[in-house]
Automatic annotation (TrEMBL):
PROSITE patterns: TAT. The lineage of its organism: Bacteria, Pseudomonadati, Pseudomonadota, Alphaproteobacteria, Hyphomicrobiales. Coiled coil: none annotated. The keyword Cell membrane does not apply. The keyword Aminoacyl-tRNA synthetase does not apply. Pfam families: SBP_bac_6. This is Extracellular solute-binding protein. Keywords: Signal. Residues 1-30 form the signal peptide.
């Protein structure tokens, strides 16, 4: 459930108060420069990322904790843990829409970080608008990202057919019993909206809720397999138990592809109901927490993960593999071999991004998740 956004005025007041506290010279502040604590999605907490940073910053204590959802991590800050964490790594809508207005994060130095956008992939080098507040402040640095729609076995369903049919593939009576649903509930809700011809990020009421209910019932009714285990889903796809699965993308297909099963392919529809787009893309932003006792090491780490070797480590860690925005830098791209690039479908990444909406907060989530849960139980 999404917590209601607080008024911007209250957020700016909290920011100002945090900066006043941060400006006081004290022994506690000095000690915090020997610490760096990051609340993050899996990957940034791996030894492949943190080990080199610790080696390069002798005497600095580094703590990382992986969250289970964006709202869960954000609620830790709301509950008072701004005094614990120095960086937070969540998906793209939260920084601008909730974290910054509520005074939970603070702006980054443009002088220090804007030059990195110049070497990012074209989608981010503009620079990426969701990394900025309405007042122009830089709120976070993009890194990992990926299109997230559905996955097929191209030995059974060609890429061209899947892209052309889009979400209608799962409403085809001939597909009944031939697909699974990867039960990532929030994403399932988004994708069922798109299947129903609805905008998941606008208010849905009345007839729209009825369309969503019919679609959810149809998707669950035709599914052979329900699981939240991406390995089990890929295994079923490879073994021929299913020909496709609903909700998936580069993130879920990449482990199988990297193991040689390149017939497992993430699909982004050619078209869809929202401005002609039918896919959706997530982008992680890492932001500086508005810690009242800040550590200078935090922004050192944020700069550290822009370097070629560490950007590659962030991309290829924890058993799932993802592109990173820094791949526009030839020195970063050179870190990846041909098999790794194929695993993350680099050949079609730019065009899939162009066909995708940015992930956002689902406006009518409470009503939709109730319908979704009922359909799943049925």
């Amino acid at each position: 459930m999404t917590v209601t956004r607080r008024r911007f005025l209250a957020g700016t007041a909290a920011t100002a108060a945090g900066l006043m506290v941060a400006g006081r010279m004290s022994p506690a502040r000095a000690a915090r420069n020997d610490q760096m604590n990051i609340l993050c999605w899996e990957g940034y907490n791996s030894d492949g990322v943190l080990g080199p940073f610790r080696a390069a910053n002798s005497g600095v204590t580094v703590r990382a904790e992986s969250g289970t959802s964006d709202p869960d991590m954000i609620n830790k800050l709301r509950a008072g843990e701004t005094s614990v964490w120095d960086l937070i790594n969540v998906n793209q809508p939260w920084a601008r829409d909730q974290l910054y207005p509520e005074g939970l994060i603070k702006p980054l130095s443009k002088e220090r970080f804007l030059p990195y956008f110049d070497k990012m992939l074209p989608e981010f080098a503009a620079p990426y608008p969701l990394a900025f507040a309405d007042d122009g402040n830089l709120l976070g640095m993009p890194q990992r990202y990926g299109p997230f729609s559905f996955v097929v076995n191209t030995d059974k369903i060609s890429r061209e057919t899947a892209e052309d049919q889009g979400w209608n593939l799962f409403l085809d009576p001939a597909m009944k019993g031939r697909y699974g649903v990867l039960t990532y509930d929030n994403w399932n809700v988004i994708h069922m909206c798109l299947t129903a011809g609805l905008n998941p990020f606008a208010a849905i009421e009345g007839e729209g809720l009825s369309k969503f209910r019919d679609t959810a019932m149809a998707i669950f009714g035709g599914a052979k397999l329900l699981t939240d285990d991406l390995v089990a889903m890929n295994t079923a796809l490879i073994n021929g138990e299913i020909d496709a699965y609903f909700t998936g993308g580069t993130y879920t297909a990449s482990p199988a592809r990297y193991d040689g099963a390149t017939n497992v392919r993430a699909i982004t529809p050619n078209s869809g109901p929202v401005d002609g787009k039918g896919g959706c893309v997530w982008v992680e932003l890492t932001s500086a927490v508005n810690n009242p006792d800040p550590s200078s090491v935090a922004e050192d780490f944020l700069e550290f993960v822009q370097t070629p070797e560490i950007a590659k480590a962030v991309a290829f860690t924890e058993g799932t593999y993802n592109p990173v925005s820094q791949m526009g830098n030839p020195d970063v791209l050179a870190q990846f071999d041909s098999e790794e690039l194929d695993a993350i479908q680099m050949d079609s990444l730019a065009e899939e991004m162009a066909r995708s909406l940015d992930y956002d907060v689902v406006t009518s989530y409470d009503a939709l998740i109730d319908i979704y849960t009922e359909a799943r139980r049925t």
